[in-house]
Amino acid sequence: MADFVEDLRFRGLIHQMTDPELGARLNRDRLTGYSGFDPTADSLHVGHLLQVCTLRRLQEAGHRPIALAGGGTGFVGDPGGKSEERSLLTEEQLEANLAGIHGQLSRFVEFGRGGGDSGAVLVNNADWLKPMPLFSFLRDVGKHFTVNQMVAKDSVKSRLARADQGISYTEFSYMLLQAYDFQRLFDDFGCTLQIGGSDQWGNITMGIELIRKVRQGEAFGLTTPLVLKADGTKFGKTESGAVWLDARRTSPYQLYQFFLRCEDAMVGTYLRYFTFLPHDALLTLDQATAEHPERREAHRVLAREVCTLVHGEDETTRAEQAAAALFGGALSGLDEATLLDVFAEAPSTDRTRSELAGGGLLLVDLLAETGLVGSKSQARTAIDQGGAYINNGRESEVTRVLSVDDLIAERYLVLRRGKKDHHLVRFT
User: Can you name the residues that pair with 17 across neighbouring β-strands?
Assistant: First the structure.
């Protein structure tokens, strides 16, 4: 890329840089830069996706990225963005979480020789933090910072302002541990750049200062904006929790729907943050949203690009097919898990398979009993007028009898009245 920094600016990815010289260095030199991910769960979530994408952009521009898994700092917990003390994880929990995160990061950047000179490196800060004696840490790291500096950091000030919470010495020390991480990566890999969200500014500048004092070296920091929704709340959270990058926690269909349903005001921002589309394509999608927001063209592109990035082309195609099922698309190709995802918000009823044996179950009866219509006569009218559907197929026979042959995944039936009223029937 001719101007890597200009691309970052176009996408709104630069919140702050610690040195105005950094922009020229990123365009001119080959740097090694890192971003850290604390293993608070066994999967990354979409709140991490911006930094993961930024590491990939760094690699595609010819720089070497380092992904740091915080097996050591995870024992302590970053106080940033938290109004109360984190629960400490056990060593077993951390190991399980690290294993999950390691596998995910490899989907986004090329590690080792596969990436050539810019091949990414994956490190775990537990390798140097856990063996470090306390007295060495106090003397070699703690000695270089004053309590005044540390108390002035936003992550600490916000906690000290709450007399009912405060901050433990454990979390208070987090910024020193992160500063030492930067020094170790400077020593071991020649790493001179740390990338993080804007809430990491204080931690990043501590690391730069430690490198300057202890190694007389030059290092830089670049922060990206916090990713927020249109109402100003943190991105990646829903009523039920985080939206995960692990398909076992958040299915590809659910991830696809999360981005498909994002606010019109934010779709252009998310396209810049989370996709690698060229500038002219992004501007065209901006125009499409402004002129025809009802078509949701940009939303579909965003959902497809992110789902493909995280889960691959095949899973994205299945997610699109599942999304189409809500609007009359075929249901026969959906597996059980995806079918349940698609109709998770639809009313449902449990019936027994024995009702489908013998003479079977009349569609008229089931339409009325599920509440899709108010009575059997209304059910007959809906069928006569072409407004009744079985598994998204229009039904025209008032005497239609349902059997096991109608079931999807051998136990489900989807009834629909009109365009939008669905009902899922489970047969056990």
Answer: 222
Give Cβ neighbours of residue 30 (< 8 Å, ≥ 6 apart): 62, 63, 64, 117, 118
Query: SS3 breakdown of the chain: % helix, strand, coil, rounded to 5?
Result: 50, 15, 35
Q: pLDDT tens across 115-140, in order?
A: 557 789 989 999 999 999 999 999 99
Q: Of 82, 229, 249, 300, which one is the catalytic site residue?
A: 82
CA angle in degrees (0–180, nearest 5) for 170-133-165:
5
Residue type, 316: T
> Tell me, what's the pLDDT at 1?
45
How many of the other CB atoms lie within 10 Å of CB of 57? 19
For residues 147 and 103, give the distance between their C-alpha atoms in angstroms, rounded to a whole number. 38
Neighbours of 356 (CB within 10 A): 19
Active-site residue, 275 included: no
- In whole angstroms, how large is the CA radius of gyration of the chain? 27
Residue 120 near residue 64 (C-beta atoms within 8 A): yes
CA distance 425 to 230: 37
Set 30, 234, 295, 419: catalytic member: 234
What span, in angstroms and rounded, lies between the C-alpha atoms of 365 and 398? 10
Mean pLDDT score, 148-160: 85
